[in-house]
Write a structure and sequence with these properties.
- The structure holds 2 protein chains of 2 kinds.
- Chain A folds into 3 domains: 117 residues, Sufe protein. Chain: A, CATH 3.90.1010.10; 56 residues, BFD-like [2Fe-2S]-binding domain (Arc Repressor Mutant, subunit A, Orthogonal Bundle); 75 residues, 2-Layer Sandwich (GMP Synthetase, Chain A, domain 3), CATH 3.30.300.130.
- Chain A is 46% helix and 18% strand.
- Chain A contains 11 helices and 8 strands.
- In chain A, the strands form 3 sheets. In chain A, strands 1-2-3 form a 3-stranded antiparallel sheet. A 3-stranded mixed sheet of chain A has the order 6-7-8. Chain A has a two-stranded antiparallel ribbon with strand order 4-5.
- In chain A, a hairpin with a 5-residue loop joins strand 2 and strand 3.
- The termini of chain A are far apart.
- Chain B folds into 2 domains: 132 residues, Alpha-Beta Complex (Aspartate Aminotransferase, domain 1), CATH 3.90.1150; 238 residues, Aspartate Aminotransferase, domain 2 (3-Layer(aba) Sandwich).
- In chain B, strand 5, helix 7 and strand 6 form a beta-alpha-beta unit.
- The longest helix of chain B has 36 residues.
- The chains are: A alpha+beta, B alpha/beta.
- Chains A and B meet through helix 1, strand 2, strand 3 and helix 2 of A and helix 10 and helix 12 of B.
Chain lengths: 282, 387
């Protein structure tokens, strides 16, 4: 059996807000019978533009039903602007978490909400308006924009995660290399641009050490590991950062200045321009 | 406490009390190694051979043709890789689209390593496409067949006698995965059905998990899967799992004694379950009604999803299984259900009930009582049902 939380089981056994609304203001339909899960979400607004009533119908497993039920409870009373900000992670969090392989249930909830709001605003029944948005996974009819969105919002880095979150790649598997290519493009785009900007405000020593560790993990260690090396953060004294090189890097004297410069450059870029890097003193 | 109503016997079965009792001395007092040159160990050898005789008797084989393994999956792997090894490179592997993964995956592994693979399809009722099978046998070159006797999900029985005879005529070795049919079908009779090898599993017939056997007809070329020991006449290395072998022997003995009575009683319960559940609107049985194991019912409830049904059944103490995507361990519904071309409205709502000799009429009553409410509740939630 799945490791469902008590809250998931509660919403599965006692789903809230089941059914339909007469003359709804917005209707979102996602999923399909053939795909194994589907959700119809409808809402009605009150005079102040808040969601006064919301109802759902779900075909799917226990976590699909629970995710739909949770979503309706979450968005009741919200304005559409507020509702629009609800992410699939919010739905999963509300339920105390979902098994990784079931995250697509929370994504289905978010997509239905998006479709319902879109329907309210435009009268259209489909969110898809862009022609230049190829279907990547033909088995589950998942488009590139959906994969990009779900991967970006949830910080997904592997094809398996993408499959867990939106099913893409989960059947015949032919599109898995395409999904990997999309993930690569997201990673490239992210690069330094998305990384934390250099901070001008003085930060606490604790924050600085944490940030240094993050930058080492993200921007420095992978490059060293590719060459069979590694580095260890030894100490941080003010703006002086002491590191020790390990593995192949350790014995390679000729390159140590280059390495120190590389580490220093990265830390100056992402942590503080005042940083100097020194090698461990023996 | 909620009474457990166990209707998932194609997944695993309860260990029979007699089996457990027969096994216990071999954990505590008689723990010797049957290969040892002392009486303490050596005397256990006799118990292993007794068990072999009982397993052989259940399928009308000679004891020397039985090799004990750790499970049905090992038996399948051993059979398939042995056939591939003895036939050499570039042979054609013939199997079906509805096999258990323990057959399909080894066959696909061989395909990825230089052999050809033909996967025979099934009709809408799950029965074998015999024409396609015959055509595959006519293909030139060396070939072997691995074909299940009865399907674990639908209970549909393949005509193994005819298929094995055709293979023999075509000069092809023939293996059958019979883990679901041994102890359930009297037709599993090695003196009448000319298969080369047959897999069976202990925990499908009231022995514990962790024991199986492979029948290897005398004269069939065989290369061991587990190498490195003289045990099982050099056909399977590893110290004999004595308590479990004894347990399998006892289970085989019980099955042979009870099969005839059990089968009729189990089939009657299954039929009553089937007829009662079919009263639910928009329900359908998956698989042939006639060519089917007596204990299995695979039934779809349209417009609802299997996992949700199972969780509700479980709340009532009822254990069953489903071929829906959410329970198949992938995002797709069961390959068996898909191979049969079950309509997409019914694919995700397939529920399998599988009975054993330990079920009672009260178990059937419990399901018949619980199911209509569950179906109604989930349909009330379903966007595909308009009320």
């Amino acid at each position: 059996m799945w490791d469902y939380t008590d809250k998931v089981l509660d919403h599965f056994h006692n789903p809230r807000n089941v059914g339909r609304i007469e003359n709804p203001d917005g209707v979102g339909r996602v999923g399909a019978l053939a795909c194994g899960d589907a959700l119809t979400l409808m809402f009605k607004l009150d005079g102040n533009g808040r969601i006064a009533d919301v109802k759902f119908q779900t075909f799917g497993c226990a976590s699909a039903i629970a995710s739909s039920s949770a979503l309706t409870e979450m968005i009741k009373g919200m304005t559409l602007e507020e509702a629009q900000k609800v992410t699939n992670q919010d739905i999963a969090d509300y339920l105390g978490g979902l098994p990784e392989q079931k995250m697509h249930c929370s994504v289905m909830g978010r997509e239905a909400l998006e479709a319902a709001i879109h329907n309210y605003k435009t009268g259209e029944t489909s969110v898809r308006t862009v022609d230049d948005d190829p279907v990547v996974c033909t088995c589950f009819d998942v488009r590139e924009s959906e994969i990009v969105k779900v991967a970006t919002e949830n910080g997904l880095t592997t094809v398996e995660q993408v499959t867990n979150y939106c099913k893409a790649g989960g059947a015949c598997g032919k599109c898995r290399s395409d999904i990997q290519a999309i993930l690569n493009r997201i990673a490239e785009k992210k690069g330094p641009a998305d990384a934390p900007a250099p901070q001008n405000r003085p930060m606490t020593q604790l924050k600085k050490i944490k940030l240094i560790e993050e930058v080492i993990d993200r921007d420095i260690r992978p490059a060293l590991k590719r060459d069979g090396g590694d580095l260890e953060l030894v100490d941080v004294r003010g703006d002086e950062v002491e590191v020790a090189f390990r593995g192949m890097c350790a014995g390679c004297a000729s390159a140590h200045i280059t390495r120190t410069n590389l580490v220093q450059a990265k830390l100056r870029e992402f942590v503080s321009p005042a940083i100097t890097v020194v090698e461990e003193r023996h | 406490m909620l009474r457990t109503i166990y209707l998932d016997n194609n997944a695993t079965t309860a260990v029979a009390a007699e089996v457990f009792e027969a096994m216990t001395p071999f954990f505590k007092d008689r723990y010797g190694n049957p290969s040892s040159m002392h009486l303490f160990g050596g005397s256990v050898h006799r118990d292993v051979e007794n068990a072999r005789e009982k397993v052989a008797a259940l399928i009308h084989a000679d004891p020397s043709e039985i090799v004990f393994t750790s499970c049905g999956s090992e038996s399948n792997n051993a059979a398939i890789f042995s056939m591939a090894e003895t036939l050499g490179h570039d042979c054609t592997v013939i199997t079906t689209r509805v096999e258990h993964p323990a057959v399909l995956q080894p066959c696909r592994f061989l395909r990825d390593h230089g052999h050809s693979l033909v996967e025979i399809g099934v009709h809408e009722d799950g029965t074998l496409d015999m024409d396609e099978y015959k055509r595959a046998l006519e293909m030139p070159g060396k070939k072997f067949v691995s074909m299940m006797w009865a399907n674990n999900e639908t209970g549909v029985i393949f005509p193994i006698k005819e298929a094995a005879e055709l293979a023999a005529r075509a000069g092809a070795l023939f293996h059958t995965d019979a883990v679901q049919s041994v102890g359930k079908l009297e037709e599993v009779n090695m003196s009448e059905v000319p298969v080369s090898m047959l897999s069976l599993s202990g925990h499908k017939l009231h022995a514990p998990k962790g024991i199986g056997a492979l029948y290897i007809r005398r004269g069939t070329p065989f290369k061991p899967f587990l190498k490195g020991g003289h045990q099982e006449n050099g056909r399977r290395a590893g110290t004999e799992n004595v308590p479990y072998i004894v347990g399998l022997g006892k289970a085989a003995e019980l099955a042979a004694e009870e099969m005839k009575n059990d089968t009729a009683r189990i089939a009657a319960m299954r039929d009553r379950l089937q007829n009662g559940l079919l009263k639910c609107p928009d329900s359908r049985v998956n698989g042939s009604l006639t060519e089917r194991l007596p204990n299995t019912l695979n039934i779809s409830f349209e417009f609802i999803e299997g996992e949700a049904v199972l969780y509700h059944l479980s709340d009532n103490g009822i254990c069953a299984s489903s071929g829906s995507a959410c329970t198949s361990g992938s995002l797709e519904p069961s390959h068996v259900i898909r191979a049969m071309g079950v309509p997409y409205t019914a694919v995700h709502g397939s529920i399998r009930f599988s009975l054993s000799r330990y079920n009672t009429d009260a178990d059937v009553d419990a399901v018949l009582e619980a199911m209509p409410g569950i179906v109604e509740k989930l349909r009330a939630l379903s966007p595909f049902v308009n009320k």
